[in-house]
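User: For documentation purposes, I need each entry recorded in a consistent format: the amino acid sequence on its own, followed directly by the corresponding structure tokens. There are two entries in this batch. Please keep commentary to a minimum and don't merge the entries.

Assistant: Recorded as requested. Entry 1:
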Amino acid sequence: MSSAKRSRPTGQKPVVLFRAAAGRRRGFGHLVRCASLAKAMQVPARVALRGTPEAEQAARALGCELVGGGPREALEQTGAGVLVVDDPIAGNASRWIHAARRTGRPVASLHDLGLGCLEADLIIDGSAALSPRLATASAPVLSGPEFAVLNPSVVTWRKKKTARREPLRVLIALGGGPHAALAAEIAEVIVAGDPEV
């Protein structure tokens, strides 16, 4: 019997497998988001990584446990009951999503601007701009900044800063590639909207 079909004692957290893409060209945001979600869920960050040795090193530095093999092998090896996919390349994400669904495992997928495979059981896109692609998804969609995946320590830090009435600082992380000009524009808009930032 598949591990996904086994009954779990009440109150016990499911075993979650994260599939993430990372590397110099793609950036490390997908990996960081998976590690942050694992921390928020209070589960180990077991990650099947699509990336270079440099990305593997970054994953280990984030405290991730790397899982090798293809989709079916990784799911069985970890005994995962849930798969979370954060990979903007639809073909790569689709292989993992379909493998999990064939064995009865639920799948959540994380996105930016609706990029990637939208065939999961739950779609989460914390982008500020709503992608028209999300409107065509057949699965439930959680979209908008209120669904952005943040490391719980960022939220705690913000609460402490707010309590002390210190200036609010905003970190803009746009992933790999030449996004510095866009980051500067975003920063200007944020400061124009709130002079205390």
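Entry 2:
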Amino acid sequence: MGVLILASGGCANESPPPGALPDARPPQVEDIVPGRDTIVPGFDGDARVRFDEPANLTNIEREFTASPDETYEVKVGFRDVRFRPRAGWRDGVIYCLELPEGIRDLMNNRTDAPIEFCFSTGPPIPSTRVTGRILNAVTGQPQAQARVHFLALPQDSTPYAAVVDREGDFERRALPPDTYWAFGFVDQNRNRLLDRRLEPYDSLRLDLSPDGSADLEFRLTDPDTTPAQLVQAEAVDSVTLRLEFDDPLHRSQEGQPSVTVTQAETGVTVDVVAALVGEPSQVRFPAMPGEQPPEEEPEEEPEAAARPGVELGSAEAAELPSQAVSVRLAAALETGTYRVRAGGFVNLRGLVGGGDTTFVYEAPATDSTGAGGEQPEVSPPPDTTRAMPGRRRAPGRVDDP
């Protein structure tokens, strides 16, 4: 009796069979080698993460995080991914590997959390934990595509690493107790290395004790090898100047920044009461002689949507750097050309700068008493051609030029 075999052409159907419920579950981790938080002296195999179903792992080589941050060979399979340092696993090192969130199965179900595991080739795995946030120093907003490297002192060429999430937060557990220089940076060329000449970065010193924890905040600034230069000055009013620099400046200036204002025609210097980083509408000048000091306004907690980024308990989070310096003068300016000299202002890279420039000030028109401001209302001469008993024309008005 013969057997009839029917063959149908075309591609295999990835859809579930008729009547089956659609798969709504993302890929689940089925096995990790070496096991989480295990100690495996002399380990010489591949580290492996295996899923319970086929998964899209095509970008893992570029997106996974390894600590220490060495060069790894990555092998991607149908359901698993394998890792091995090109120089081999080193003895006496704690390794942590992390796969990003968003790993998809064939039905496009995505994982919603990273997959992390640590193991040791010698020492016990500590319970240390370092968390933090990476922000843009100028805008205060979370910084995308940022990494953190921890380099043990006095010198270590292989850093431990962490990567920020969508909110700019990071976490690195099992970091060996030591003293580190920690660098937060934007990996613009995606080579996992910090290039201080090209990439925004910030650095902090970290002393991590056994079973210790730390919470760090990095504020990244662009590379800069030149100090801030004064580029413009203008009079906001007769006693207030606004200076503009070509770099953002720290709100709190260390040292003794100085500003001098001199009338070019007479050589007379106008005394400066205060020079504060920030726009004139943002700073609080000290009271002038004879003035009533401004009332202290109660501090209100800003609404979450109005906060620049998210603070880590730092009151400075709302005081962002500024390219403006507001200057309060001790006496009102007179019409003329003025030269402004500034010095000792520190930019975000810690470089001290200043410069000089000029501006022209025109005092507002004055009345017969010499007081500035609007002229008094003046009635025009009567209109004799159309005069009517009991009726006057509305007074005219002379506005400032």
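Summary note for entry 2:
The radius of gyration is 34 Å.
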